[in-house]
Amino acid sequence: MEALWLSMKLAACVAAILLAIGMPVAYWLAYSNWRGKFLLESVVALPLVLPPTVLGFYALVAMGPRGPLGKLWIALFGHGLAFTFGGLIVASVLYSFPFAVQPLIASFEGVDRRLLDASAVLGSGGLRTFWRVILPLSLPGMVTAAVLSFAHTLGEFGVVLMVGGNLAGVTRTVSIDIYDRVQSLEYGEANRMALVLLAISFAVLSIVYAVNRRVWMPWAAK
Amino acid sequence: MGGEVNGKMLIAQIRKERRSAGASNFVLDVSVEVSPGITILFGASGAGKSTLLDCVAGLLRPGQGRIVTGTDVLFDSDARINVPAPKRRIAYVFQTLALFPHLTAEENVAYGLKDLREEERRERVDAILKAFRVEKLRKQKPGEISGGERQRIALARSLITEPRVLLLDEPLTGLDAELKAALVDDLRAWNTAKGIPILYVTHSRDEVDALGERVIALDNGRVVSAGAPMEVLNAPRRKKLAQAAGFENLLSATVLDLREADGVMRVRLGDSACEIEVPLGYSAIGSRVQVAIRAGDILLATERPQGLSARNIIKGQIVSLEQRGTMVIARVDSGALFVVHITPGAVRALELAAGKPVWLVLKTHSCHLVD
Question: Which CATH fold would you assign to the domain A2-46+74-113+139-212?
Answer without folding.
Answer: MetI-like fold (1.10.3720)
